[in-house]
Every structure is written in structure tokens, then in C-alpha cells.
């Protein structure tokens, strides 16, 4: 090993990228690890990998917004992300004039002076996204998981095979999600939806970050999102440029780490850590505290909670006449079979998963397996965002909007009710009743802040809570709840990271 081998580390909001830059300039090792737990733990796992593989280095260099807790322990400087991305891009692709960087939670455009090299970087201008993560990789991750499409392989292939590209809002990731859900409810093919999403993100980058201006050519497309071939295609389409004008260099997802390593190799004063054991020892002797002053407890954890069970449930068979109610929501599909006297015979709660027809079919199959042929369906009603599609396919007798259906259901359960708070996967509603009739209501429109889908996606994607039913127990076990923003779920997502 030479005395100038550098481990470059880029810790972003979603992943840790590491590279080993040898003294002769070659990149000998790369490693990309998703952050699914504490950053410190993922970082130490990366070090252990290099130790186990006997991959030596004698310098270490950091960049990325997620590096703050690490550099605080190791007492090393942090290389500016814009500088690192520029250095990495010029190292991989000499002669580029600008950079489009799309990561997990960040997006940036960097314009370079003509004479810039990786040793002599001169940045003419740059622009980044706001705290909102619209137009970044984390939203693509969320939607690929929602659609059940592998983000690393199938997502781009399906987008490139789309025949019709629907319009999806790109200025806000939450609005875009709402548009996608409505497209799913009318059975739009998954490939068309992901193509529309990629096009929306490309257009959003063009308008929000570049303000409609064409990037200086040639431009390097880098960051984790650059591995998505469809995103490169739609960026070229949005800017009306040729394939050779937007370049995706090899190791494009590692440009930040490469830039950090380049800076570490050139610097004579810093980055003297040369042992995985030495670095790990620093963490063992230093307890990193992330405690912040939290909010007061909402309630005494010892309190008991009483859930109304006043709906009569019928369990004896056979049932002569039956009535099916179907609520096709953006996240879940709910089915209830009732008898002629209003008693519940069977009920099902299933995830819609972007396929409302299949979800309803599966719910009906499950009810049939439970009940068999002991009932005769005399009526069917649908509600929810997919009510028209399912109502037409299954020949519903009634198709009712959610406000009416929620009010009728609430009065059925509790005849004296006058106020309804309903929080679903993508919608939240307030309904005021008088004499059992709705007289006023309010609901969210496109934004899903304050609804179930964001809670579940954040718990699973950012906090590694595998099952939705665990959320309540974990939340109520807290002694000091943290205060997040209360207006935009995308901002809350950034705060979590």
C-alpha cells in the first residue's frame, strides 16, 4: 500500500457511499449501503467490511450532509458537497461544463468555469432544492415500494416501455403521489405511471432548480438517481438535448465520495486515520448523544383505551339475504357483508397496492371462503376514490362519495354522533352532522400531510419499522416525543433524516 491511499466517504440522507482511491489514481473498491438504521452503525459496518476484506488505506475524507455526527467524533473536516461533486465529476469525466446531481433527498445543478479540472475547480454558479424532497430519489423509492416494483431493476425498464405518459404534478412529491393514486384507481398501467413520474421529476428539476434555463453542455448526470435510465431519458427530453450532451459516467453514484477522496489525496494537513480499528475505537470511547428536548407526553402510558365495539356481529349461519359494501381507498380496500337486519356477517381489510380490481376480487374470494353459498347478495354499494371503477365493474346498486358514506356509517355505529374525524391513507376529513345529516365538512385536497400513508412510509423506510401495527406501541413507549414541522410531510421526512 502506498502512503497516499484514500478512503472517500459520502454520507447522504439515504445511503453511505465509499470508495478507495489508490495513489496511482485508480478506484480499487466501491461500496454502496442503504441507511436503514443509525448512521454510526452503518458507517462502522462499512469499516468492518474493509477490515475483513483486508483493504488498506492511510487517509480518510468525508462529504455529505449525513457526516456531521461522524466527523464530530473523529475530529476531521467536512468537504463541501458542491466541491466534492464537482471534483468527482471532473475526475471521472474531464471536460464537462455542468453537473446535475440527484440523490436520495437532495438535488443540485453546478455550473463550472471553462478551465476547471479536478485539481483546480472553479464553480461559476450552483442551485439546490429546498428542504422539500420533491424531485429526488427518496420519492422514487417510496413509489416503487408502493407499486411493488424493484427500484434498481424493473422501475426504469417499465418507464421506458410506457406507451402513454400521463401528466403528474412534479412541484410537490405529495401532490405527485396523489395523482399516481388516482391513476391507479382507473387501472392505468404501472409502466405509464412510473414514466409519468420520471417525466414530472425531470420537468420539476428544469423549472424549480434551473428556472427553465438549459444546462451548460456537456452536463454530467450523477448521484443515485442517475442509475435510473428513464430519468436520464426524460432529462434529455425536458432540456431538448442529445444523448451525448448529458453524460452518465461510470460510478456516477459515487462522485461525491470520489471527490472527497481526491481532495484528501491532495491535502497535506488532514485525514491521517489509517486504521479501521483506530476509527472504530474512537466510537467505542465516545457516546454520541442525539437526544433533543421533546414535547410533553400526550397521555399517561398506563392509560387504557376503549375502542367502540357496538356494531352487532352476526356469527350464525345460514344468511338468507346479504348486502356488500366496498370502500376502495388509495391505500386500503375494505369490504363488509351485512345481513338484512344490519348485522355484520364478514369483513375484510386489504391493501389496495395500486390494484383496486385485484384487491376487491381477493376480498370477495376471502369472504366466499368464509361464508360459502349460504347467502344471496341483494345489493352492493361502493365508496372511496375507486368507487366508480369498481362500481361499474361489479355492477353496484349505489355509488356514494366518501362524506356521505362516512356519515351514514358513523350514525349506524353511534346514532348520537355529531362530529367525525376520519384519517385514512391519503385523505383526512372533518364532517359536522345535525340530526344525523352532514351539514358541513372539510378535507385535504391533494396534499397527504397528516394522513396514514406518510406515517407508514416514514416508519418503514426511514425508521426500519417493518410492520404498521408496531407503530403505536413504539410511539406510546416514548418519554420525549420530538417536534417536527406540521405543514408538509415532505419537510417532516427531511427532518427525520
Sum up the structure in keywords:
alpha/beta, five-stranded mixed beta sheet, 36% helix, elongated
What does this structure look like?
By secondary structure, this protein is an alpha/beta fold. Helices cover 36% and strands 21% of the residues. It has helices at residues 39-52, 68-74, 81-92, 137-147, 154-160, 173-185, 190-209, 229-239, 255-266, 276-284, 356-371, 387-394, 402-413, 452-461, 470-476, 489-496; strands at residues 6-11, 15-21, 27-34, 59-63, 78-79, 98-102, 107-112, 123-128, 219-222, 246-247, 321-328, 332-339, 344-351, 376-383, 398-399, 419-423, 428-434, 437-443. The chain is elongated, with a radius of gyration of 27 Å. The protein has 16 helices and 18 strands. A 5-stranded mixed β-sheet has the order 3-2-1-4-5. It has a 5-stranded mixed β-sheet with strand order 8-7-6-9-10, sandwiched between helices. It has a 5-stranded mixed β-sheet with strand order 13-12-11-14-15, covered by helices on one side. Strand 12 (332-339) and strand 13 form a beta hairpin. The mean pLDDT is 84.
